[in-house]
Write a structure and sequence with these properties.
With 578 residues, the protein is α/β, with parallel strands linked by helices. The chain is 53% helix and 18% strand. Among the domains are: 1-153 and 473-489 and 500-543, 3-Layer(aba) Sandwich (Rossmann fold), CATH 3.40.50; 214-338, no CATH class. A hairpin with a 2-residue loop joins strand 14 and strand 15.
Length: 578
């Protein structure tokens, strides 16, 4: 039976805490994945080694981790006969980028830990979870890319992506380049905004002229009539009077005659008053009645006078009536088009004037914009030139640094080239296109990193580059699979030293067949395959002390028993500090 693995590390278990590291894979649990029935691998800070005989299942651990991070396995991953399986990973001190993504997706986030899991089902589908909450495969894949960088035989290296090369070169150029990028980016966005505004003005010029003409027409139409607030009500009253002028004249004359003519009301009131006046000496009670008759007589005579004056003022004027009716119709046309009331018609006229001023102001704005765009473009090109000059200088330094790193991992014959070309169109990062090229052998032309053969040589190349870039480019947990292919002697020792150096800045997982690499690890996992109950099963064991010494001896000689191999293993561990 395998030994009980030591507990997964916590921040307190690691010297110096987690402050100097990005996301750390503290624990990987695999259930019913391929040949693995159940395995729990606790990982430590620094360099973690996975070893075992050929076919023991080392690649299954790599594949399980890739599956957890959203990858697609080559074969059906569910263990034969199982209804379900899962792969889970616990990450300590995840980077802020990862925490931001989790919060954006509305999932529960903690400051010190992230739990990722992906379940397998017999139907072929999988279920993804982040912190025990269901999520999508796309989310799991995006989050995983911020936590672990897989450098296996069947994984795509992050550094192989040309889209990252410009960013890496700028980071290598230093903080001053970051400030240049920030300044240039602001100018680039400003130039685009101004150009878009100018293009909008130019593309809409015909429509703008049409709108100006129509707005002028509307303003002119209202101004031609020159309506006044309440004028429509005044016209309606005047039209009613003119339309009834003859009736009004005749009625006023008849009413005047009834009040003031011979035998009319005024004459009758005068006679009645005279009678009562003669009787006042006989009965004083008649005096109020007489006074009332006198007042009535005065009122009747005044009314008759007013009626005659009113009748004299009334004029029968058909032409004037037509004029008023035409004016009233003109106001009604405006009201039908621009508002139910004249007040709203006038308000529409005022808004049309404001709109006209805005439209006519665009002509002046177009001229100003052309000058602004020209100046912004000049400034942008100037800053882009500074970016390009700094990149050229940084590219030369980077080539020298990478060449030094390649020599340290036994690839001194490889030639690393930073290809720096002008882009057809300026972009948010300037005028340059950057791609890393490599010539693995003397006499060969440099080719893009993505086109060189994968395998141990590629892994060592990535190790050399990551060893350099990790000093200024934040890297997540790194996994190297079969980095030792074709290695031996001093080259293997050089790779071991570079792995240890890299592991001081981030967590490294390394699958290896070489004892010199395995001895450099801070934690050593051994994978073995056995047949139990007629079923093949892969098991994992954390090796310490004598067990680790025996495994290194086996890796050296193929047999753990020879004392020479044991002695060599102890020497390797001593030199590595293990």
């Amino acid at each position: 039976m395998p030994e009980e693995p030591p507990p997964a590390p916590t921040g307190q278990d690691w010297p110096g805490g987690l402050g100097n590291f990005s996301a750390m894979l503290a624990e990987l649990e695999i259930v019913n994945f391929a040949l693995v029935e159940r395995a729990c691998l606790p990982f430590a800070e620094g360099l973690n080694i996975l070893s075992g005989e050929t076919g023991s299942g080392k690649s299954l651990v790599v594949e399980a981790l890739g599956f957890l991070l959203g990858g697609t396995p080559r074969d059906k991953p569910l263990r034969s006969g199982a209804e379900s399986g899962s792969v889970s990973g616990r990450f300590l001190a995840p980077p802020e980028e990862a925490q931001t993504l989790v919060r954006q997706w509305g999932l529960e986030a903690t400051d010190n830990e992230l739990l990722l899991s992906r379940d397998l089902h017999a139907s072929g589908r999988s279920t993804c979870r982040i912190n025990s909450r269901l999520t999508t495969l796309a989310n799991l894949r995006e989050l995983g890319s911020t936590l672990v960088d897989l450098h296996g035989q069947h994984q795509q290296y992050a550094l192989l992506k040309p889209s990252r090369h410009l960013q890496i070169l700028d980071r290598f150029a230093g903080p001053a380049q970051a400030e240049r990028l920030k300044t240039y980016g602001t100018l680039w966005r400003r130039t685009r905004e101004l150009s878009a505004e100018l293009e909008g003005l130019h593309s809409g010029e015909l429509e703008r002229r049409r709108e100006i003409d129509w707005t002028l027409h509307e303003i002119s139409e209202i101004q031609e009539v020159q309506p006044r607030p309440g004028e429509d009500r005044e016209l309606e009253e005047a039209i009613r009077v003119l339309a009834s002028a003859e009736d009004l004249q005749r009625g006023a004359a008849e009413a005047h005659q009834a009040l003031q003519g011979e035998g009319a009301a005024a004459e009758a009131l005068a006679r009645a008053g005279s009678v009562l006046k003669g009787l006042l000496n006989s009965d004083a009670r008649l005096e109020p009645l007489w006074e009332r008759l006198e007042e009535t007589l005065v009122l009747v005579r005044e009314t008759a006078t007013d009626l005659r004056s009113y009748g004299d003022q009334i004029r029968v004027d058909p032409r004037r009536l037509e004029e008023l009716q035409a004016r009233h119709e003109a106001l009604r046309r405006l009201q039908r088009k621009y508002g139910p009331s004249l007040e709203e018609v006038l308000a529409y006229r005022d808004s049309a004037r404001a709109r006209l001023a805005e439209l006519e102001g665009r002509t002046a704005r177009s001229g100003d914009l052309e000058a602004e765009v020209a100046q912004a473009e000049k400034d942008r090109l100037e800053k882009a030139g500074l970016l390009s000059a700094a990149r050229k200088e940084a590219a030369e330094r980077l080539q020298t640094e990478v060449a030094r790193e390649l020599a340290l991992v036994g690839l001194s014959a490889c030639r690393f080239v930073v290809s720096l070309e002008k882009s057809p169109e300026p972009g948010p990062d300037g005028l340059d296109r950057v791609e890393f090229l490599i010539a693995p052998n003397p006499g060969e032309p440099p080719r893009p990193l993505a086109r060189i053969a994968s395998g141990g040589e590629l892994s060592r190349l990535m190790l050399a580059m990551l060893g350099l870039f990790s000093r200024f480019e934040p890297v997540p947990t790194l996994l190297f699979d079969e980095i030792d292919a074709g290695l031996g002697g001093r080259a293997a020792e050089a790779v071991a030293r570079r792995l240890q150096d890299l592991a001081r800045r981030c967590q490294v997982l390394c699958v290896t067949h070489l004892a010199v690499l395995a001895a450099a690890g801070a934690r050593h996992h051994h994978l073995s395959k056995s047949v139990e109950g007629g079923r093949t099963t892969t098991r994992t064991t954390v090796l310490e002390g004598e067990l680790r010494e025996l495994e290194l001896a086996r890796m050296l000689s193929g047999d753990a028993s020879p004392e020479a191999a044991r002695s060599h293993a102890r020497e390797l561990l001593s030199r590595a500090g293990g």
